[in-house]
Amino acid sequence: MKQIFQLMHLRQLRRQLLRTVLAIIAIGAGSTLTVAVLTARSSIERSFGAYNSALGGPASLRVASRYDHGGIDNSVVPLVEQADGVQAAVPLVLSVSQVNDGHGHDQLTAIVGADCRAETIFGTHGCDPAAIATARDTDPPVIGAGVATGPDSVLRTDVGDRPLRDAHVLTGLNSFNGGRVIVYPLPVAQSLFGRPNGLDAIYVVPKPGVSTDTLKRTLAPIIGEQNQILDASADNSGLIFVTSQLLPVLLMISLFGLAVGAQLVFNTMTLSLEERRRELAIEAALGGTPRAVLFGVLGEAAVLGLAGGAVGIGLGLLAARPFVGSISHYAEQTAGIHLSVHTTATNALIGLAIGVTASVVAALVPARRAARLDIAGELVDRSRRFDASPRIRARRPIILGTAVVVGLTMAWLGSRHHGLESWAPVVLLAGIFMTWIAAFPLPPSAAPFLVRWIEKVPVLQRGPARVAVSNFATETRRTSTVLMAVGAAVGMAAMLGGVLPGMRDGARRLTADTAHDRVMVTTLTPNNNGAVDAKLSPQVQESLGRVPGVARVEHVTHANVELPGQGLIALAAGDGDTKGFEVYEGESLADARRNGHVMVGPALARGLDLKPGATFTMPGRFGPVSLVVGGIWAAPDTLGRSITTTIDVFERIAGPRPVDWVLLVPEPGLSPAELAGRVRAAGLAPNLMVFDPDELTSELAHDFEGFIAPFTVLTRGLLVVAFIATASTLLLAGVKRKAEHGLLAAVGMPPGDLGRMILVEAGLFGIIGTLCGLFGGVLSLIAFSLASTTMTGLYIPFHLDPMPLLTSGLIATAFVLAGAALPAWRTSRLDPVVALRYE
Question: Is residue 214 within 8 Å of residue 309, measured between CB atoms?
Fold first, then answer.
């Protein structure tokens, strides 16, 4: 059996080296994007795990607040220290801030506040408790070598800038976050970064022999419901929550590339087995059972898949860099952690398994056909072919079309009434995924029917064009493969081209809802920077109120809360009188504030089954807090998981914290743009950011567009898959039709026309593939618009921008023509005498 496999299958892979390489590249390109997405996920986990492990040292547990930004009260520390089984409890402030190098460049950097108890986990460094107790917030900190320093470098804090020119560089910190860390005495860190009596973590070192589980049970009733016990290396930054929403969508899109690679393996195996029908018949006649033939062919496919998976792993590591680079920005904002590309043995095994599985599944049908050969017929009549051009059938497009209709209907039902029903998200997301999965293969499956009309175009009824169209129409499987590759790339670009203007509309509405006729003043970009402690200082806030033309200063602050059973939610508060978001049910924001009620987002209302007037309790920083729902509205924070209240109630829940930004109300007759100009001219702080409504809309739109950066990278990857699909498919088709091409040359078709025939066929792939992408992209864009509020928290209306479609269509067509260049050149150099002797 082993000798037969080596002789009939492994040797065949060596004999048909070009075909083997193309199949390996095809499956490798298909699995690359999947491996890249998995690598991005492991990079996040590895980077955060390494950060927390380096921070925790020998500690096995960590007490963390359900609230960000110093949510653990100082009074919890002695309770933990005195608990049975605790050897040491190390209180820390953990924050993120900006370092400005004095030349206009800002760097997000991790901040650690510690006292001498930290030597338990960091090692002995000669800490002096008296020096810690008398430290001032103007004293220079200890920094790692990765922090940008210089004569004019400063650290931004919540109470103003602090110079770093005299900071002490400690080389022992270089292994911690790449040396991008700044360490302050604990009380100083609490003062500089807005944590009065607040801590971010208490690392717990157990006594020898005390198990982690036992210690968790001991500490649980001590620390209070508002805090939680985690493993020391666990991440609770909120980034995993964000990526858990993003990566599954990226993974699903990457499967399109894998499907194309599998189809190319199917074509390769079908062609190879067709050419070896006589050899397989001889194998069967000499005693090879159908089972042996079947598993021999599948083993051959598995070898191709294994090699393709290995190629995909290598390419996936390269492709993961843009993914990780996009996500790293959010990691820096969340915890000051700079992500680097990391993979795992599990990812490598998954990559190999993907390649093998896709290849074996793709080869299953050809293998079964080969195992069922008519032995006598093959040995007598070698001219028969088992893969004659299939008859065009409507079953597949009907099934896919039905799936699209059902998916869009489900998405529409799930989005009705703002998706407040408990079943709505499940139906909505199932509908959008069904639509996406079926929308892109639907047009290629119906393309053969379109080609029947194209054949009637006069310019395509003569010479090489007529032969190209005939080939395009008769080999439907090959046609669908390339159209799927081109259509997926163009469709994704078309969808993203529609999402971008929709995001700009969303940014415009968000500005109107939160900062209408106001000027926003902040020190940070106004999105996803809640964890960065480089906020407006109280002195700057007071100065803003004295700028001529300012009628009123309104304050806005935010917090993140880990609510039991719901995960991460947003808590927001302000003292202004903006109308806020669209109210779905219940009171307006003004009425809710007047009545002492809160406004909740739709996802939180759905998760807790809340209605206007309902009461619910949440574990506040200082004890349970009972809240009454005033209304449910379209707040986008944390995908609709949000609570909005007054600043007084906010501080009762989460404790005091710095203001994220202020809104300046101009005096009557003064426009926001004019007031913004006056604030800039006042020069109150070097890092002050001032936005009038139009500027705020542009800033938000730019930040939202960063969300789709990974999808843009994926689209480029799909273009590469389209290039490989075209090149490999046309090369294999050239081998299969070698005798036909020789006959055309023998009857007088010039070599140039033979090459042009291949290019015309490739051009049809590009044009019709673009139309397929338009169709699939529009359907996907409709589904995304219906699901946008649930997926992103922000309603993104449907837009169809023709420019991205035309641009991507032209690029895809150029890729396809480039992929066809080698097959066209080889065909034009064909020797008809040799070709007619082929096989």
Answer: no
pLDDT band at 688 (very low <50, low <70, confident <90, very high): very high
Confidence band for 387, pLDDT divided at 50, 70 and 90? very low
Is residue 784 pLDDT above 80, yes or no?
yes
Beta pairing, strands 583-586 & 86-100: unpaired
* 472 in Cβ contact with 787 (< 8 Å): no
User: Which tokens in the block code for residue 557?
Assistant: 């602050």
Q: Which of 525, 576, 536 is nearest to 553 (CA)?
A: 576
Sequence-separated (6 or more) residues with CB below 8 Å from residue 781: 494, 495, 498, 499, 798, 799, 800
- Look-up of token digits 């619910």: 616
Task: Please determine, for residue 386, whether its predicted confidence score (pLDDT) is greater than 70.
Answer: no
Question: How many Å apart are CA 522 and CA 508, to the nearest integer?
Answer: 19
| pTM for this model (two decimals) | 0.78
Give 339's contacts (C-beta < 8 A, 6+ positions apart). 43, 44, 47, 324, 327, 328, 331
Q: Cα separation of 258 and 771, whole Å?
A: 22
Give the model's pLDDT for residue 633. 94
- List, for residues 652-666, the tens digit of each pLDDT value: 999 888 999 999 999
**Beta bridge pairs of residue 203:** 62, 90
Q: What is the pLDDT of residue 158?
A: 93
What size, in residues, is the chain?
A: 839
Token pair of 36 as six digits:
């890249």
Q: How many C-beta atoms surround the C-beta of residue 462 within 10 A?
A: 9
532 vs 335: CA distance, rounded Å? 8
| Per-chain mean pLDDT for the chain | 82
Q: Select from 526, 96, 572 the least CA-distant residue to 334.
A: 96
Q: Which residues pair with 663 in a beta bridge?
A: 520, 554
pLDDT above 70 for 152:
yes
pLDDT 10s digits, 748-770: 677 777 778 888 878 888 888 88
Cα 716–chain centre separation: 15
807 Cβ neighbours under 8 A, 6+ residues apart? 493
Rg (alpha carbons) of the chain, rounded to whole number: 32
Per DSSP, 692 falls in state: -
Residue 382, token pair as written in the block: 């070698």
Q: How far apart are CA 589 and CA 585, in angstroms?
A: 11
Residue 505 · residue 788 · CB < 8 Å = no
Distances (CA, A) of 395 to 227, 517, 543: 57, 57, 71
Residue linked to tokens 């400005």: 100
Are β-strands 168-169 and 142-143 bridged in parallel, bridged antiparallel, or unpaired?
Answer: parallel
Q: At what angle do helices 290-335 and 709-736 cross, to 10 degrees?
A: 160
